[in-house]
Structures are given as C-alpha cells and as structure tokens.
Amino acid sequence: MDLTYKIMENNKITRILFVCLGNICRSAAANGIMEQVIKRESLDSQIEVDSAGTYGGHRGELPDARMRAAAAARGYNLTHRSRRITEDDFYDFDYIIVMDEMNYESVSRLAPERKYLDKVYRFVEFCSHHPQWSYVPDPYYEGREGFELVLDLLEDGCEGVLNRVKANSSI
Predict the structure, then answer these.
(1) CATH of the domain at 101
(2) Residues belonging to the active site
(3) SS (H, E, C) the chain
(4) Domain count of the chain?
(5) pTM, two decimal places
(6) What integer pLDDT is reported at residue 7 of this predicted model?
C-alpha cells in the first residue's frame, strides 16, 4: 500500500505542492487553478494546495503580472506569495508535482531519503488533452501565447490531479 493511500485512508487532508523554478508563473498558476477546482468540487476541507520554486530569488513576490493578467481573463485570482521548496515539504505534502525535468532533478536532490521520491510527479503525467507536451514550458520569456499555452496545460492537468486524488481516496 503506498503512502498516499494510507494518508487518505486515515481521513487526513491530502496536501498537494506544485513546483517550478521561481514560483511566479507555472506553479503559482497551478496553485490558483487547483484551488478553484477544489472549491468547485466542495473539497476545500479535504485537499490543500501550495506551490514553491526551486529558486528562492522571488521569495515573497506575487505571481508575474503577465501570468496574473492571463489567469484573471480566465477567472482565476492568483494571490500566492512565492517561496522556495524545503526539505520539510517532503514530510508535509502527499504529492509534489513539478513542471519540467530541471525541476524534477532539483526536487529529487532535495529529498531527505529515496523513499520520498514516490511523492514526486511530473505535471504532464496528469494531462489528458495535451499528449504532445513532455513538460510545462516556462512562459517567463515568452509572449502572451506562452502564458495561454501554460494555462491550457495547467487547467487540463489540475483536473487530472483531482481525478488521481479521488481515485486514491474515499473523497
């Protein structure tokens, strides 16, 4: 029996952490989208969401203004303040979901023990409508289309995350 199932079986809150590089675009947007998905399903008392970055240079900042604007156009209000992932997150979260391979490698090196790598997932594993993507691209240096693509991927994947959590629990 895997750790995630045991945690949910004991009626504990399922905790999900999204991770990207700076925690100002992709993971911050995934955080906001997932919060809305959870609220829509009335599961906000059973699932908690947070996000972090592998780089701490944006600590305390709101998400990138371009991401906030693109997300707002879709009805999402991104208010998360950036933070850096810590070793404690491996103890505190049931799912640690990364946006790309660089994030996967950085997060994996931070794991306190190998057994905690079972909690680390690539975000695209949860996407069902975008099979051509093997990662969520960083829109930071892109134009408006880059942010829209990322939001498309995040909306798709957040639904998949919720489906996986439901499948592994009594929710």
Answers:
(1) 3.40.50.2300
(2) 20, 26, 138
(3) CCHHHHHHHCCCCEEEEEEECCCCCHHHHHHHHHHHHHHHCCCCCCEEEEEEECCCCCCCCCCCHHHHHHHHHCCCCCCCCCCECCCHHHHHCCEEEECCHHHHHHHHHHCCCHHHHHHEEEHHHHCCCCCCCCCCCCCCCCCHHHHHHHHHHHHHHHHHHHHHHHHCCCC
(4) 1
(5) 0.92
(6) 40
